């Protein structure tokens, strides 16, 4: 098959479009012809070696397509089924193997491309708004990078749950997108904590911060007493170590650094989140903004664009 292969970690140029052996199908897995692979920031961390993996590897943690073969001990899945997955490596390729524990059936009426665009970030936005902090009507919520892949979904889902949503973005175009997704207020990053306090009085109930290094300290200052700091990513770089006493000083705050795997660890939990997510898509309550589609061979360009903050919403790779 053709795939993107990383043989040494580094910049976008290490994403090489090459011939690569077809993945081996083991018991409990299915082989999928990939229709589209989602691009996620974690793919950048893997490529850079910030989250180390053994080399060589095929990147990509999310995709959707058609089942081409079914391994031993797999029940309820047939060749031809439309499926999607998240948190399984190897989707920057024409074929991928997916363990059934991570396999989701794409419902009738949802295009596989759309499933590839929403599954990883949608499941993440679900656990952040339903489990890390259960957003309630009337909550004030701050979403950083509100026009990004994660951001646009977080804004919409927090609105579905009745919150007032404040977003941060870097440009006017991104502001417009965040507002169209339902954000009540949209700020630039400079001085955002003061602006949040002006809007809310005592601060927000929760901050969803996937930006990391450049926003972390001010995000704590934007929280109300006993608020929740959900540091779920580090697009601007890792956050340096902190003294826990800071949490007391800023108002008895909670700090968590969650990752998707811990929130879809059981088949039931994965099914609950996916059923909500695909249900909102079917009903039109959730819209997915696919801003760019790249041929698989141009994965390096997709990474350059993502890291340079040139993108909005979701990026897809099409084999
Ligand atoms: N923990 C989890 O379970 C989980 C799951 C999925 C994603 N994530 C995290 O969620 C975050 C967003 O991921 P995504 O794939 O949806 O990306 P994205 O938000 O579409 O893209 C990143 C955005 O971050 C903002 N940003 C601010 N400073 C930046 C910098 N120095 N370099 C690059 N971007 C910067 C930019 O928006 P502005 O220009 O508006 O600032 C940029 O567009 C990432 O940190 C990712 O690791 C975590």
Distance between the termini: 10 Å
What molecules are bound to this protein? NADP nicotinamide-adenine-dinucleotide phosphate
Order of helices and strands: EEEHEEEEHEHEHEHEHEHEHHEHE
Share of residues in strands: 25-35%
Radius of gyration: 19 Å
The largest pleated sheet is described as: 7 strands, mixed
Low-confidence stretches: none
Helical content, roughly? 25-40%
Give the mean pLDDT.
97
Structural class: alpha/beta
Number of helices: 10
| Total strands | 15
Q: Overall 3D geometry?
A: globular
Keywords: NADP, Oxidoreductase
Protein name: Quinone oxidoreductase
Organism: Planomonospora alba
Pfam families: ADH_N, ADH_zinc_N
Characterise this structure.
The chain has 319 residues and is an alpha/beta fold. The chain is built from ten helices and 15 strands. The strands form three sheets. Strands 3, 4, 5, 6, 7, 14 and 15 form a seven-stranded mixed sheet that branches. It has a six-stranded parallel sheet with strand order 10-9-8-11-12-13, with helices on both faces. Helix 10 (299-307) links the parallel strand 14 (290-295) and strand 15. The structure holds NADP nicotinamide-adenine-dinucleotide phosphate (NAP). NADP nicotinamide-adenine-dinucleotide phosphate binds at residues 40-42, 120-121, 124, 145, 147-151, 169-170, 174, 210-211, 214, 232-236, 258-260, 306-307, 309, 311. Keywords: NADP, Oxidoreductase. Pfam families: ADH_N (PF08240), ADH_zinc_N (PF00107). Residues 10-317 form the Enoyl reductase (ER) domain. It comes from Planomonospora alba. This is Quinone oxidoreductase.
